[in-house]
Amino acid sequence: MLRKKQYRNQFIAVNLLLSNIVMGGIDTILLYSGDIFRNAGISESNIFYINIGAFSLLFICCFVGSFLVDRFGGYRVMVAGCVVLLCSQVLFTVAQAIEHLSPAVTRPLAVVAVFLILGSWSLGINSSVFALLGEITTDRTRTTAYGYAAILFWILSWLGGFIPPYLILYARAYALAPWIIWTVMIIVYAITYLPGVREKTS
């Protein structure tokens, strides 16, 4: 499969796009959203309800995302989701980094960034990935590519849950930096290389 360029490109695309589900820093946000809200000055009694709202947002955005994918296609929805995700990651990082300058402003911004990250991930990335994978693969490559991508996906899922505590402990405000770098790479790949893969499989 990897000997032919066309099949090799499909293999690489499937692995990158499926890995993108867990490499955008979503686990960092999901695992520590309570701490983020608490740091923003939200009372303990309200954090529970805000978390419910945040997780409800995931479901709503996924539902809306399915219609957007049907209307605009998986590629456009995925790229748009990644761009919004990147902006949200940067907003969150900046808000955390300059928190000491104006907590009253930066802490609410961090909360807004959390909701934007969750929304862009659910609506743009999670909703579009399988539709897009179907577009860029053929019957000859799909089973093999999905199999290897699933293995990589679960390895990265473990890393995505294992690394965040150390990032928060040592990187502090810049805990999302590795995920920002990944998101930039995915956007560049999606814009420059992915259209060629899609054209060769259409």
From TrEMBL:
Residues 1-201 form the Major facilitator superfamily (MFS) profile domain. The keyword Protein biosynthesis does not apply. It is a multi-pass membrane protein. One of its GO terms (molecular function) is D-glucose transmembrane transporter activity. The chain crosses the membrane at residues 12-34, 46-68, 75-98, 110-133, 145-167, 173-194. Gene3D superfamilies: MFS general substrate transporter like domains. One of its GO terms (cellular component) is plasma membrane. Its main location: membrane. It holds the Pfam family Sugar_tr. Keywords: Membrane, Transmembrane, Transmembrane helix, Transport. GO terms for biological process: D-glucose import; dehydroascorbic acid transport. InterPro entries: GLUT, MFS_dom, MFS_sugar_transport-like, MFS_trans_sf. It is found in: Membrane. This is Major facilitator superfamily (MFS) profile domain-containing protein. It comes from Ciona savignyi (Pacific transparent sea squirt).
